[in-house]
């Protein structure tokens, strides 16, 4: 039985989705219904005082695990503040730590992320830190109590794919917590590639939300993640330099 | 009196019950979380809380995000 357990919850779907950028957020319910996605990220923002604000929670089925992120945080202290507010909002104790002060590439600050993870794990949060792929930082996040580590494939929202493949492969090999590829994955084939390497899951937002047909793209991602996982479990055969016949070359026509 | 709500100065006629303020702004208490003078204000204290002169509030809710 191939199980993924995070924070004591067993997850059947290894595709996590973000809820940002959808032209119509009501489609999230259809995505969950058709793909079995169980983890959905959300963000926390000031309400509009004119009372005309959205409420994303109405669009996310109750059975989902809500994964609030700490987007907007530039330091560990700000991330901790946002995480505590998110938990006070009554949506569970999972949190995606995201600490970013680089406005051009939105690359995460691993040092601040480690500090925030240590404090929040101690407070009983299930901490999933978004990180720049780095082995030492990943091991430090493990020691800090992270429930998983989430290295980026490429900068947020770029749909550029698994640019960090070699280092993510090393993290998968060396980490004892699940490695979830988060950010940058643009196509289902790239998600499948991450899963074939042994990633525990993929978190996808932009590639689904901005697709011409987000629902069909979510289904494609769901199947790709599943196919990639199966391929990983099946243990691919070795690659070789020269051809090796799949059919017998002797015993017929001229032999 | 003046309070600051979500970074914006807000003029109020006097000490205002928090729940009345939310209702007047058509903000659903069920979907917001509030930081009151820098501290998370737990839901069970909302009925007893009044916004007073000089107070700072952050009223937040969940939005789409990745």
Automatic annotation (TrEMBL), chain A:
Its EC number is 2.8.1.10. InterPro entries: Aldolase_TIM, Thiazole_synthase_ThiG, ThiG. Coiled coil: none annotated. It is found in: Cytoplasm. One of its GO terms (cellular component) is cytoplasm. The keyword Nucleus does not apply. CDD domains: ThiG. GO terms for molecular function: thiazole synthase activity. This is Thiazole synthase. The keyword Cytoplasm applies. Residues 6-248 form the Thiazole synthase ThiG domain. It is an enzyme of class 2 (transferase). Pathway: Cofactor biosynthesis; thiamine diphosphate biosynthesis. Homotetramer. Forms heterodimers with either ThiH or ThiS. It holds the Pfam family ThiG. It catalyses: [ThiS sulfur-carrier protein]-C-terminal-Gly-aminoethanethioate + 2-iminoacetate + 1-deoxy-D-xylulose 5-phosphate = [ThiS sulfur-carrier protein]-C-terminal Gly-Gly + 2-[(2R,5Z)-2-carboxy-4-methylthiazol-5(2H)-ylidene]ethyl phosphate + 2 H2O + H(+). Keywords: Cytoplasm, Schiff base, Thiamine biosynthesis, Transferase. Gene3D superfamilies: Aldolase class I. 1-deoxy-D-xylulose 5-phosphate binds at residues 157, 183-184, 205-206. The active site is at 96 (schiff-base intermediate with dxp). GO terms for biological process: thiamine diphosphate biosynthetic process. Its main location: cytoplasm. It comes from Heliomicrobium undosum. Catalyzes the rearrangement of 1-deoxy-D-xylulose 5-phosphate (DXP) to produce the thiazole phosphate moiety of thiamine. Sulfur is provided by the thiocarboxylate moiety of the carrier protein ThiS. In vitro, sulfur can be provided by H(2)S. Belongs to the ThiG family.
TrEMBL record, chain B:
CDD domains: Ubl_ThiS (cd00565). InterPro entries: Beta-grasp_dom_sf (IPR012675), Mopterin_synth/thiamin_S_b (IPR016155), Thi_S (IPR010035), ThiS/MoaD-like (IPR003749). Pfam families: ThiS. Gene3D superfamilies: 3.10.20.30. Signal peptide: none annotated. This is Sulfur carrier protein ThiS. It comes from Heliomicrobium undosum. The gene is thiS.
């Amino acid at each position: 039985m191939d199980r993924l357990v995070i924070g004591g919850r067993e997850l059947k779907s290894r595709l996590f989705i973000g809820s940002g950028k959808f032209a119509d957020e009501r489609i999230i319910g259809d995505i969950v219904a058709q793909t079995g996605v169980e983890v959905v990220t959300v963000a926390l923002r000031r309400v509009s005082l004119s009372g005309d604000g959205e409420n994303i929670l109405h669009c996310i089925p109750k059975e989902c695990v809500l994964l609030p992120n700490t987007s907007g945080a530039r330091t560990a202290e700000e991330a901790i503040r946002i995480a505590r507010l998110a938990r006070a909002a009554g949506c569970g104790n999972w949190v995606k730590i995201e600490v970013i002060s680089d406005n051009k590439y939105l690359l995460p600050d691993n040092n601040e992320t480690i500090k925030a993870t240590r404090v929040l794990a101690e407070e009983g949060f299930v901490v999933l830190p978004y990180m720049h792929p780095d082995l030492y930082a990943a091991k430090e996040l493990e020691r800090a109590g992270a429930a998983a580590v989430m290295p980026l494939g490429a900068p947020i929202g770029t749909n550029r794919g698994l640019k960090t493949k070699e280092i993510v492969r090393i993290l998968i090999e060396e980490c004892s917590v699940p490695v979830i590829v988060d950010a940058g994955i643009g196509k289902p084939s790239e998600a499948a590639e991450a899963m074939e390497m042994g990633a525990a899951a993929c978190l996808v937002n932009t590639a689904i939300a901005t697709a011409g047909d987000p629902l069909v793209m979510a289904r494609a991602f769901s199947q790709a993640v599943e196919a990639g996982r199966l391929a990983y479990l099946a243990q691919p055969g070795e690659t070789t330099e020269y051809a090796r016949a799949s059919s017998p070359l002797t015993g017929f026509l001229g032999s | 009196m003046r309070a600051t709500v979500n970074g914006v100065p807000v003029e109020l006629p006097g000490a205002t019950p928090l729940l009345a303020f939310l209702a007047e702004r058509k903000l659903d208490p069920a979907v917001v979380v509030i930081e009151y003078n820098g501290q998370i204000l737990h839901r069970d204290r909302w009925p007893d809380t009044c916004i007073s002169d000089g107070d700072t509030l952050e009223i937040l809710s969940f939005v789409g995000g990745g």
